[in-house]
Write a structure and sequence with these properties.
4 helices; 149 residues; 5 strands; single chain; alpha+beta
Length: 149
Amino acid sequence: MTIRIRSLAPEDKPRWEVLWLGYRKFYESVPGDGVTENLWRWLMNKDEDPHCFVAVDENENVVGIVHYLFQRTTFELNDRIYLQDLFVDSAARGKGAGRALIEAVYGVAESTNACEVYWMTQHFNDTARRLYDEVATLTPFIKYTKKFP
């Protein structure tokens, strides 16, 4: 399978939505009312966070997505990039789409002088973690959260 990475385009919406909802299902999370439409509006505004790349196969089918956003940090002069969502269609996994999407975000980091790209995943996401162990360094940080209505 030949994979090419490009920016998200308006005509990608139907396939992007399938992948976005597949990602949310994987994490057992159903988006609330309006979340998907709001995210799409953000992604269509190239001057705002978050941003999106898509992986397309040789037939121009969108087989993967990555959302990322810039984040100021008190530790460095330059922004970090938070790779928030990465999802590849099950039929395309193991064929380089995930790696290519991560590398596209790395390219943005290099071109914008970002100091770091980072992301989180759940401990049981073994398939993805095998790739992550090859392209990044596992940190000792533990995440805490408090939800608000």
